[in-house]
Amino acid sequence: MSLNGWLQISLFIACILLLAKPMGAYLTRVFDRRKTFLDPILNPCERLLYRLTGIKPEQEMRWTEYAVAMLTFSAATALLTYIVERTQHLLPFNPQHLPGIEPALALNTAISFTTNTNWQSYSPEGTMSYLTQMLGLATHNFWSAAVGMALAVAFIRGITRREANTLGNFWVDLTRATLWVLVPISICFSIALVSQGVIQNFKPYDTARLVEQQKVTGIDGKPTTITTQTIAQGPVASQEAIKMLGTNGGGFFNANSAHPFENPTPLSNFLQMLSIFLIPAGMAIMLGKMVGSPKHGWAVLAAMTVLWFAATLTCYWAESQPNPLIHNADQHASLTTSLASQPGGNMEGKEVRFGIANSALFAAVTTDASCGAVNSMHDSFTPLGGMVPMVNILLGEVVFGGVGAGLYGMLVFVIMAVFIAGLMVGRTPEYLGKKIEAYDVQMSMLYLLIFPFIILGFTAVSVLMPNLGLSSLANHGPHGLSEILYAYTSATGNNGSAFAGLNANTHWYNYSLTVAMFFGRFMMIVPMLAIAGNLARKKIVPASAGTFPVTTPLFTLLLTGVIVIVGALTFFPALTLGPILEHLLLHAGHTF
Amino acid sequence: MTDALCILLILTFFALAHAYTCACDRLKAKPRHD
Questions:
Q1: Using one digit for the tens of pLDDT, what is the confidence trace for A215-267?
Q2: Which of A121, A364, A373, A412 could disulfide-link to A504, CB 3.0 to 4.6 Å?
Q3: How far apart are alpha carbons A40 and A256 in whole angstroms?
Q4: CB-CB neighbors (< 8 A) of B5 in chain A
């Protein structure tokens, strides 16, 4: 670990904490339908959209109506993406004449982008036409993020309203999240990315003649000489901006944010990380403002920051260690010579222009939030370094989390925390004046149990049925288990990053990951909305001496503890068989 | 044929989610016996 690395990490979190307050204030104005500086341009657009679609913005929705509107919208957009993918060979903006996408992969991708996961079982530049990337995928980056924000706002309304049956209007929240938040910031961010060298064009792919011919062995075993290289092009900057801002993560290229056309400079890398956390941090502050307790928003943001710091510290420390097998390969090597061959630690799978600090930080940020973009290969991390991104997702994607999704996930943990605090002192738990009763806890438990049930269930089936789960696995032993566990964790947590080493473009993985992504999104949203609907119906009880304060460091500590304990109790056994065992075996001289 | 099945699968997923929403709502409406 270096001073330079820590300075960059400190600068990053300082920027996030500085931007959180203005972002939170702006989000509050947007969702409270108060005046903003963009109103003169966007109000007419909003009115036109409502007129065209027949939406009545004043019409309020019960939680079930809100859920059905969200499901209907998601179903329609998923179908649109599926059709675009299947017919891309008939549609324009396909200069490479790429064929229509195979049904299982098209289904997987449609659900993946609808659920804000952006899991990609394919290499985008060799599979998706420009139109598919724009109309099928980039649009979902806006829509799925806006859906997440709308749901978080609905939950907050559930907390703030008293004896009400409704949570707002889904269509209005969706429209305002898109028009007022995602589109303007994405435009500014795209321009910033273009200034750094991110490409934006509709040209066919370039072909470059290699300075030095390469002799390789083909998959048929015959030697081949390669003399040219195809250089993919496309409208990257416009997709890249919302990919990060909406915590989507699906890359325009297979190498994602490690590709120089997606993430060319250290500054673009810094801006990308900043944009992942920008809205989730602002939403925590928005929570405080909307519920009339700004300190509560800061307390929630503090819990997120503590967990982020623990992840970054662990990952950075682990990746700063030299690989012991390389060190031991030369029996006469001292630690100094080993470090000389591995400058700064484990550089395998990392871009030299980002280095270890920015790779570890990016890995922590992208998996704390449910983004899933990568600038280094998590599969090449040390076992403990690779465990960090996995643990971040296994905690439930609540450490900043996805746009909106992180906040409502965190609020479910808040309900569990105040419930546990209530149990400890023998009082009916309260949260911001609302009594937490049996139904709220039942729905919270449903929310928390679906997640491990899908991850561990599918991982177990994949491991126990070699023809299904093991046939496309590149590594065996604990590393192989980590690759499978990571795939289902990433899909269910709607993160979308891959551990690599696993070819997921098989029928089993395409279909099972589709189910994991779908259930991991919508089957968790429904109980969350049910809690919101139930909270909205309740009276507000005045705070008393027995009320557990939710604005103090003790609350932050309790919330952090509940998140860690729930995650550890659920997933520690699986982690011991994967990355922890691999770490111990690596130091005993075994690799996988 | 496969396309029809995939589209049916997408619609089935969302129909299931809708049924699940109704089930969660009914759980609240159910009278308590404790």
A1: 888 778 888 899 999 999 999 999 999 999 999 998 899 999 999 999 999 99
A2: A121
A3: 37
A4: 103
Cβ–Cβ pairs < 8 A, chains A and B: 61
Give the minimum alpha-carbon distance from A75 to chain B in angstroms, rounded to a whole number.
Answer: 6
Q: How far is A253 from chain B (nearest CA, A)?
A: 26
Name the closest residue on chain A to residue B18, using Cα atoms: A68
Which of A126, A266, A243 has its CA nearest to residue A196?
A: A266
Chain B contacts of A527, Cβ < 8 Å?
A: 24
pTM (two decimals) = 0.92
CA distance A52 to A386: 49
Question: Predicted ipTM?
Answer: 0.89
Tell me, what DSSP letter sits at residue A473? B
How far is it between the farthest Cα atoms of chain B?
52
Return the pLDDT at B1: 63
- A195-209 pLDDT per residue, tens: 999 999 999 999 999
Chain B residues whose beta carbon lies within 8 Å of the beta carbon of residue A523:
17, 20
Q: From CA A385, how far away is CA A380, in angstroms rounded?
A: 9
**Where does the pLDDT of residue A502 fall: very low under 50, low under 70, confident under 90, or very high at 90 and above?**
confident
Q: Are the beta carbons of A70 and A58 closer than 8 angstroms?
A: no
Whether the CB-CB separation of A265 and A197 falls below 8 Å is answered with: yes
By C-alpha distance, the chain B residue nearest A82 is B7
Interchain pair A104, B6: CB under 8 A: yes
What is the predicted pLDDT for the residue at A143?
94
